[in-house]
Amino acid sequence: MSMSFQAARLAFVAAIASLVRVNAVDNGLARTPQMGWNNWNAFACDVSEELLVQTADLIVGYGLRDLGYEYVVLDDCWSAGRNASNNNTLIPDPIKFPRGMSAVAEDMHVLDLKFGMYSDAGRYTCGMYEGSLGHETTDANTFASWGVDYLKYDNCYNEGYAGNQAISSERYRTMGDALNATGRPILYSLCNWGEDYPWNWGSTIANSWRMSGDIFDMWDKYDARCPCEGKDAWNCELPGFHCSITNIMNKVSFIVSKAQPGAWNDLDMLEVGNGGMTDDEYVAHFSMWSVAKSPLLIGADIRKILPQDLAILNNAAVIAVNQDPMGQSAGRRWMYETEENGPGAIQLWTGNLRSTTGGRWNDMVVLLINGKDRAIEMNATLIDIFSDVRPKGKPAQASMAWEVRDLWADRMSTEKAAAIIAAAKGNSTVPFNATAIAEGRFNTTQTSYADGLKSNSSILLGKVIGTVEPQGNIKATVPKHGAVMYRLRALPSDRNIDEL
Amino acid sequence: MSMSFQAARLAFVAAIASLVRVNAVDNGLARTPQMGWNNWNAFACDVSEELLVQTADLIVGYGLRDLGYEYVVLDDCWSAGRNASNNNTLIPDPIKFPRGMSAVAEDMHVLDLKFGMYSDAGRYTCGMYEGSLGHETTDANTFASWGVDYLKYDNCYNEGYAGNQAISSERYRTMGDALNATGRPILYSLCNWGEDYPWNWGSTIANSWRMSGDIFDMWDKYDARCPCEGKDAWNCELPGFHCSITNIMNKVSFIVSKAQPGAWNDLDMLEVGNGGMTDDEYVAHFSMWSVAKSPLLIGADIRKILPQDLAILNNAAVIAVNQDPMGQSAGRRWMYETEENGPGAIQLWTGNLRSTTGGRWNDMVVLLINGKDRAIEMNATLIDIFSDVRPKGKPAQASMAWEVRDLWADRMSTEKAAAIIAAAKGNSTVPFNATAIAEGRFNTTQTSYADGLKSNSSILLGKVIGTVEPQGNIKATVPKHGAVMYRLRALPSDRNIDEL
Amino acid sequence: MSMSFQAARLAFVAAIASLVRVNAVDNGLARTPQMGWNNWNAFACDVSEELLVQTADLIVGYGLRDLGYEYVVLDDCWSAGRNASNNNTLIPDPIKFPRGMSAVAEDMHVLDLKFGMYSDAGRYTCGMYEGSLGHETTDANTFASWGVDYLKYDNCYNEGYAGNQAISSERYRTMGDALNATGRPILYSLCNWGEDYPWNWGSTIANSWRMSGDIFDMWDKYDARCPCEGKDAWNCELPGFHCSITNIMNKVSFIVSKAQPGAWNDLDMLEVGNGGMTDDEYVAHFSMWSVAKSPLLIGADIRKILPQDLAILNNAAVIAVNQDPMGQSAGRRWMYETEENGPGAIQLWTGNLRSTTGGRWNDMVVLLINGKDRAIEMNATLIDIFSDVRPKGKPAQASMAWEVRDLWADRMSTEKAAAIIAAAKGNSTVPFNATAIAEGRFNTTQTSYADGLKSNSSILLGKVIGTVEPQGNIKATVPKHGAVMYRLRALPSDRNIDEL
Amino acid sequence: MSMSFQAARLAFVAAIASLVRVNAVDNGLARTPQMGWNNWNAFACDVSEELLVQTADLIVGYGLRDLGYEYVVLDDCWSAGRNASNNNTLIPDPIKFPRGMSAVAEDMHVLDLKFGMYSDAGRYTCGMYEGSLGHETTDANTFASWGVDYLKYDNCYNEGYAGNQAISSERYRTMGDALNATGRPILYSLCNWGEDYPWNWGSTIANSWRMSGDIFDMWDKYDARCPCEGKDAWNCELPGFHCSITNIMNKVSFIVSKAQPGAWNDLDMLEVGNGGMTDDEYVAHFSMWSVAKSPLLIGADIRKILPQDLAILNNAAVIAVNQDPMGQSAGRRWMYETEENGPGAIQLWTGNLRSTTGGRWNDMVVLLINGKDRAIEMNATLIDIFSDVRPKGKPAQASMAWEVRDLWADRMSTEKAAAIIAAAKGNSTVPFNATAIAEGRFNTTQTSYADGLKSNSSILLGKVIGTVEPQGNIKATVPKHGAVMYRLRALPSDRNIDEL
């Protein structure tokens, strides 16, 4: 093999790795998908200072903060209107938040958490409270003055300023500019449900954008209120709500390339722990959100969370995929809806992760999803796993052997999770923290996922379950409405090979 | 079970109930869907003072006013152009309305009715009379000066100012602002046939918006002039006309969440009494419009209405669902189009109603629709009935027992209806009135639906036909092209239970 | 039956008839669909003064003028650019039109014909000649100064000013206003291929609008360049060209209600005589265009037209349907694509015609279309024929008996047509003329279709072939890729009945 | 046969030939589709002066320049930002391009090649480098000052200025105007992936426009990131990337008529030589791009190209079709997806080429494409081949006999191609050059394709393999995922016939 071919390949790999040069949005935040908690899925409008403070204490106590769940986000229904005698600034509901929002923010900050709030790019919020349309500067300044670190910005009652990318982007850009002008770094999370193709314009305005209607706690039930399905679902002008998790996962399959450091496809807040799905379904749900590089916002009532659900949310090996420093979404390599084994689709998703071997070959995440009503054996060939790499059909990686690591094998036992919950204080046994990536804020034992991966932590890499040979394939029995999730690593012998 | 779990649940239920905080549109009208009569379906352009006055007399005489049918709405074709020597104000047709419109309005007001008129957000009305585009302030002032209480505002000949939410909403907002500026409360009813997604912007402009092309008096016949069907019908840029009632009901299934007090999905005026459908079909039609919280505008010739049709329109138990103070549209829980039992779809719709038991559990309306060409037995499980409640698949309500009440069981007999018609003067035996809700105008024996429901009136609650056990289901034989409609109420033993 | 019911019915019928009150577009032209000839389909850019003059002579000589074919329209490719030293006015090609356009117009006027020309709402015409975008006033004045009576206005090279109704309508309105400002009545024919829903805004701007891509001389062959088919074809953002006649007829089925006096759906110029279809197909084609109230522009080379084709184009009974004074398009009552009798669809179209009986009941046109590859017997029930009349399923007309008249039975014999062609001078045996409707210009023996129909001319009414009984149906053997076309007239006994 | 019929036919043929009168875009470039090389498909961001110079040398050395591959285009990732102290002009990356871009351009010019560069109509390029939105004049001047001859202009990070033809065309027009204002002829190549229908507005702004998402080196694999397929693919608002070559070919089938001299549908850069497809697939790929009149930009690493791939890219007979002076895209005459012979579609494409016989009949290119998984025998009837000619079904050409020439028969042997590569210097045995057409720049032995075709060069006309008789058809065995490509020429006896 000629040297020039080798040089070209090396250069190509380097070039791909260097594709992202500057920040998408200028605020420097969300270099990996944001993590945290939001009250909506479990509480809707039933919000209060007490809820936030209790939740924050438990986020710390259960070790979730130290895993990266950093933002405590208050959703809709917190306001009591505007103060006409004070520049029409927003007023917190004095019953729900008797000490005001600054005090809540301060409580969060004391716990080394961050505080998120909510408003709406319309006349009203979805809950019919005051919206920020026309009040962007005032409200951005108010949020900054309260010490807010995060804004979820919704789309209800938008007065018809929609139906076109230019109109919608302008409406959202106005608030983004206002937030930037405050000087305070505030993570900006668009909640326009995928209307008007936010993946085309969101990345220069904000840190994430919802790309579908609201999630509902179910696997795949069709609901007319979330009407877009299948291969045509990329063009959904009525995003709706009550969307199943497979519906959302299907919709993101079309736009995975839009995710990048600083700017993410938001698949909506997690339902893990809300009781509507089986354990296998929740495992699949968390795995899906992880590989698609969605923000991971816990949507359950932390105060009553079940041990088995905590043991999903605190799986550092799965979180490490989501928080991988390369910041590239996995993509769907195939989906089959054959009638074999009954109705339901099976899918393969794979994606690049930063190499943890010190060689030139990226690690790879592999997610097999079984939508059938029974457990089946599924296959993923190396050709399919690496089908995104040129040349198609003959990727070099398919001719290598790979170590296979099961990312769910080390899931915390229910007993241990129950003990943590019972003690109301976790042992913080997982010394990795997503938020350390951008900030280096923790001067304790916490390590960023990037550093943890670099140091080959087996906590983050999962359990070795075997090897896949060159041109081989991975077989796995996948439970009904479930998933298996693997990390592939180049075997030592292959790490520095020049060519195949 | 822990107290905190119970507290959270209580809080959640309360939060849902308090979601709606402020008026969608500011005029304070239509807190429940408007009710009344409109001449178009039966008379089209054949309008006159005589028609309106005769109809108004019979609306009162047949007891319909006292049921809530309050607005007498004159549709298109009433004008004789503009008066160039008087600021281009609109001139009523002197032959059709020799005394002018103020006199007609006054006639209505004397009868404790309200008067509605019609114009168009275009150069011409659909009937090619003068439109209001560019004359909004003048015309709003004219309507107010005549004592008009309601404006239906159409979409013909709009000069191309459409095709985008921003453009259409601006065109309709102009008239809304002009109406508000008159100082007279005028219910504002958009008639843009669902073009440019009015459910996204209508609620901050108006009290209702048409969400489909014009109704035609038929069950389900396809007509190319109303081309959108099935699961893709949510995105219909050619609304057309000659839409069957099942076509419209399908279209509203996608957007039921947009209905709220003060702002309703308008499914178009009723066809009950116009002769195109069977009695079973009309019963289903009225039931559908009721649960979807459509405005209920009678579209028949009241002067020649048949007794069996009157006995549909005056069913207080069904109207009470439409006028329920919670103001939440039912939603479609499932639709099956299997070939079993022949062609045609079967559907289940359910929705929350304000509790009439004094406990914490909402009542529930259940509508089973049979589109098959023969009577069949249908089933609705509690799981499906309450599938909208979190957690999905395990709603607490499914583990309770419920009283089942048939809302059509107490339908007035044809004999009695015939007697009322013959006397040309109803006995006003139903002392409930929708309009009392917003205004408390009646100081007589009439009671609002809200108060009637609160007082447990069996007239409004329907006839008890049995009980459904926890985890059980409701079975009913549903006629061909027909429906059954039930109200579920928590049994006394369950009314105040904390948990299940 | 009560008198009031009868009165209501009478009123209803009268109301329908009086629906159209004012002109859609203000120029007073095209009260029935325009008729004439256009060179494009047969000659494309191969135009010259000689072609137009020879054609005009034969239009008169073959009796076509006296049937209403009045406009001789010159399509694209006539220009030699703009005259920079004369206000950038358009210059006719001096080789093709050595005497200039005024001379051509005068030639047409001398023959009692009218002269149409062509331009484009873009930078170039479709043939890459100078377009009128930005030159509207100049060009309108030029056309008026030349004595032009008709402008076909195309859509090529529109610089992106499209994709929205507001943008496109503005572009076309500019020329419409400029034409009106000249003071010369110029029929304005939009040729934007149905882009941006011209049926929504065309009627207040122009006299007709193309509603599909360009026609091609074939029955139903799919061509990717005209990609929209079937029930979804109403929403075609790529109108394309090479559209088959059944493709276009399908597309107009969705918007038939938009046709009205002064403003017509334009199905594109006729292909009759261009050799691509069979005689049966051309008969169906001409019948379709007639009932849909399309402008009838002959698209063949008149100088070489075959006798059998002339005998299609000069069928006064079919033209009388197109030129019926009521001006209402027929609609598709059903279309079946069952596999019975092989592939291909069968269709029924019916529509109201002004009564020719002196009674209150409209005449009715019935068109049965057979898209199968073999002749089949078809049925049209009175219920279906009158299904557009309320109440649906029980129209009064279905309970009457009707005279059935075959509109193709009196088609001119090939021998006679050949003789006319040979003589190069028709005998003008058909003394009816569409253009007399609007203008009363002919003081000879010609009579308008309206007057001819009023006088019960059997030439216009077709041949009586039988009677259809109340609740009955019409059976006909329809040839492969063909049509039968009937006029129904109320039988004398039923003409003045009050009710049924 | 009458003389007038003959005259009309002659006139018609002449008229068609003269349809294109003026330049679509005013810069006079790309009268035939541009040819050249672009680094993206093989190298992505791994660019350098060295790469371009080495490639340019080999383009000359392998004889590719003399075949017409003229433009060496540098894609994304070349910039180091803007120079704030020099009017914010763009700065080349000093490591990748140490001598600056002028030097590179000069290197190209010395080799009689032209130099292309890349920017983006957005805030960033797709690789997150500085975009030109808002800097159009500055950047156009910079490119001109560097001696750039070609600009590829991308669509990433466009800030939401999209979603409508008017908005997108304005964004692209701004740069086009800026390029024209420089006075330097710069070929302008839009890369907006078909968004907002650039075929409607691109031709008055630019020389070509991408009409699909990015190509991927595969035959037909579905990828959710390129979601539009089949008959509905004409309306793809999410162009995506990873589009297979058959996906792109399908998409262009709808808009073939938009291609014309100076303004071309761009099917994206070639994958020939990148290793993802079989030899048969690459032959089909190059044939497809040729007949669709796509720009032909080599996308492989020229320095490592395989002999068999060079022997595809240097097939002058196929290039001559692409560079035919008539400049008319072939169209798809049929596509069948029957299950016969297994899954996969078969297609026939044909198109007019300028006559090479001296007679009045155009040559015709015929491309048969086999998407099945096995070789099959395919048929193309003369009726289908000429189905685009009026009258449909009876084209005169179907009644003639035609010489059939195989355009791949004379493909260079692998041995010869290997020898050229080994010598690193081709013998330039093909004395035809596409670029001579527009410029006559070569005063050597090179001849333009137009002149070569006129002189009947067998190199350009392919190998005679037989004759097809009147009303006959062509049979060919087409390999799996492959194509055969023929040129039809009128036989001498038919060349000057008047009629048939």
From TrEMBL, chains A, B, C, D:
Matches recorded under SUPFAM superfamilies: (Trans)glycosidases, Glycosyl hydrolase domain
Keyword Transferase attached: no
Gene3D superfamilies to which the protein is assigned, alphabetical: Aldolase class I (3.20.20.70), Golgi alpha-mannosidase II (2.60.40.1180)
Subcellular location field: Secreted
Keyword annotations of the record: Disulfide bond, Glycoprotein, Glycosidase, Hydrolase, Secreted, Signal
Domain Alpha galactosidase C-terminal: 344-417
Signal peptide: 1-24
GO terms of molecular function: alpha-galactosidase activity
One Gene Ontology term from the biological process aspect of the record: melibiose catabolic process
Domain of life according to the entry: Eukaryota
Enzyme class, spelled out: hydrolase
EC numbers: 3.2.1.22
Reaction catalysis annotation: Hydrolysis of terminal, non-reducing alpha-D-galactose residues in alpha-D-galactosides, including galactose oligosaccharides, galactomannans and galactolipids
Keyword Glycoprotein applies: yes
Entries under Pfam families matching the protein: Melibiase_2 (PF16499), Melibiase_C (PF17801)
GO cellular component: extracellular region
UniProt-listed PANTHER family: ALPHA-GALACTOSIDASE MEL1, ALPHA-GALACTOSIDASE/ALPHA-N-ACETYLGALACTOSAMINIDASE
Reported function: Hydrolyzes a variety of simple alpha-D-galactoside as well as more complex molecules such as oligosaccharides and polysaccharides.
Family membership noted in the UniProt record: Belongs to the glycosyl hydrolase 27 family.
Protein name: Alpha-galactosidase
Species: Hymenoscyphus albidus
